[in-house]
From TrEMBL:
The reaction(s) this protein catalyses: ATP + protein L-histidine = ADP + protein N-phospho-L-histidine
Major subcellular site: membrane
E.C. numbers: 2.7.13.3
Membrane topology: Multi-pass membrane protein
Key words, A-Z: ATP-binding, Cell membrane, Coiled coil, Kinase, Membrane, Nucleotide-binding, Phosphoprotein, Transferase, Transmembrane, Transmembrane helix, Two-component regulatory system
Gene Ontology CC, one term: plasma membrane
Domain HAMP: 179-234
Statement: the UniProt record of this protein carries the keyword RNA-binding: no
Name the record gives this protein: histidine kinase
GO MF annotation, one: ATP binding
EC primary class: transferase
Pfam families for this protein: AbfS_sensor, HAMP, HATPase_c, HisKA
Xref: PROSITE patterns: HAMP, HIS_KIN
Organism this protein belongs to: marine metagenome
């Protein structure tokens, strides 16, 4: 069936139809069975005897007679008072109880001139059941039921079986309908999560996209949307890469001209400021090129990397940079707890770890320590970079990996300058190496960036 609306409609309609049919058949069957018992009963000697006993001995005598008679015959005899209760206090069969409440609850006839039946004392409106009138004018309804058949248990089992079968059919149809709706929804959710995380290669065309109903059309539309987003992203990356390349050439010529000017005129504040800003611009262009390169296909082949040696070298380089740039009051300490080897892209892993450690150094207070630890288990290696800064608001924890995103504290602090690309590059680099990166605040204060990479 190609129409989802029709499928849902017919499924619910089928469940309701089956329920109505089963309920109707069951009700009709049991109603006819009771009516047959009551209709086939005729006034017999037993009824006449009950009337005589009630007239001569009253209600107490009728109770004694009913007890003796009931114990001597398999036929079930019930004598019901106006309140719908058996005079012996027995529990009425459920079906008979409903029937009694329906037919003996008529109000007594009113005495008026226009009602000839009401004026005649020995006449009462016709009722489908035999009734006895006591000395105190109390009316008792008498019901005689045949002996319970030996196959009554089969009838009860049949009723239970019909109810069970109805439940099974409705549950089966509901399960199949729910599965037909929920299973594609789960696949849609999985695909949208992948797209939100930047994985635009997730397609539904090979699975639910082959369906011809509304869900199949939605899956194909989602694939088309992902394709368009991928094309737009590729164009943006290519544009950023071309712009960066085009900017680097005039920037290089400007720096050469700046150096010549400094030789002629000597060091001045203006020329020093131009040199500082040109270096920042060159660094930003380099980051944009790195980010664009990681967004595309990496031409380098993966190879085995001694992660302990690589991290140790990066830590030494960062400590040297800190001293050469005047940040000698922040120290990076490396703690090696394992000697893992991974299979990955060297330049991507190096860039990621460098960016994370440099970022931690720049956000650390004076006379503090940045700790880098390396651990490993049976399947992966874990690198933790912990600083002693203020940490980050929980609402910004995921956003710090967005390109050009800067936290509110960084924006308000003039001493903390950056492009907001460092952690974005790190996340792309780790993802290219089939790893994972996350950030969380430490209980003792500060931020921890944790990288996990699969072992070779």
């Amino acid at each position: 069936m190609r129409n989802l609306f029709a499928r849902i409609f017919l499924s619910f309609w089928l469940i309701i139809l089956i329920t109505i049919i089963v309920a109707g058949i069951s009700g009709y069957y049991y109603s006819n069975r009771i009516d047959e018992h009551i209709t086939n009963f005729e006034v017999s000697d037993t009824v006449i005897e009950a009337g005589v006993i009630l007239e001569n001995q009253g209600l107490s005598g009728l109770r004694s007679w009913l007890g003796r008679t009931q114990s001597a015959t398999p036929i079930r005899i019930f004598i019901i008072d106006r309140g719908g209760r058996d005079i012996l206090g027995r529990q009425l069969p459920q079906d008979i109880d409903r029937w009694i409440k329906r037919f003996i609850s008529f109000p007594p006839p009113r005495m008026d001139r226009r009602n000839r039946i009401a004026r005649q004392r020995n006449l009462m409106p016709a009722r489908p059941l035999t009734q006895l009138v006591g000395p105190d004018n109390q009316i008792y309804t008498m019901i005689v039921l045949p002996e319970p058949p030996t196959y009554e248990w089969m009838l009860k089992q049949s009723r239970s079986l019909i109810i069970l079968l109805t439940l099974l059919v409705s549950i089966s149809i509901s399960y199949l309908l729910s599965r037909a709706i929920i299973q594609p929804v789960r696949q849609f959710r999985k695909a949208t999560i992948a797209i939100s995380q930047g994985d635009l290669d997730s397609h539904l065309g090979d699975t639910i996209g082959k369906r011809q109903d509304e869900i199949g059309k939605l899956a194909r539309d989602l694939d088309e949307m992902a394709k368009k987003i991928q094309e737009a992203s590729d164009q943006q990356i290519e544009l950023s890469r071309n712009i960066s390349h085009e900017l680097r050439s005039p920037l290089a010529r400007m720096r050469v001209a700046l150096e010549l000017a400094q030789r002629k005129t000597g060091e001045t504040y203006e020329l020093s400021r131009i040199e500082s800003e040109s270096k920042k611009l060159d660094k930003l262009i380099g980051q944009i090129l790195s980010y664009s390169k990681l967004k595309g296909e990496i031409e380098e082949n993966k190879k085995k990397i001694d992660l302990a040696a690589l991290v140790h070298e990066i830590v030494d380089n960062v400590n040297f940079e800190c001293k050469s740039t005047g940040i000698d009051d922040v120290e990076v300490i490396f703690q090696k707890n394992a000697q893992p080897v991974i299979n990955g892209f060297t330049f991507a892993i190096t860039g990621a770890i460098e960016n994370i450690i440099r970022n931690a150094v720049h956000h650390s207070p004076k006379k503090s320590v940045v700790r880098v630890t390396l651990d490993a288990d049976k399947q992966s290696t874990i690198i933790k970079v912990q600083d002693q800064g203020k940490g980050i608001n929980k609402g910004e924890m995921e956003k710090i990996f967005y390109p050009f995103y800067r936290t509110s504290d960084a924006k308000n602090d003039k001493n903390k300058k950056g492009s907001g690309l460092g952690l974005a590059i790190a996340k792309l680099a780790i993802k290219k190496n089939s790893g994972n990166i996350e950030a969380y605040n430490l209980d003792e204060g500060g931020l921890c960036i944790q990288i996990s990479l699969p072992l070779a």
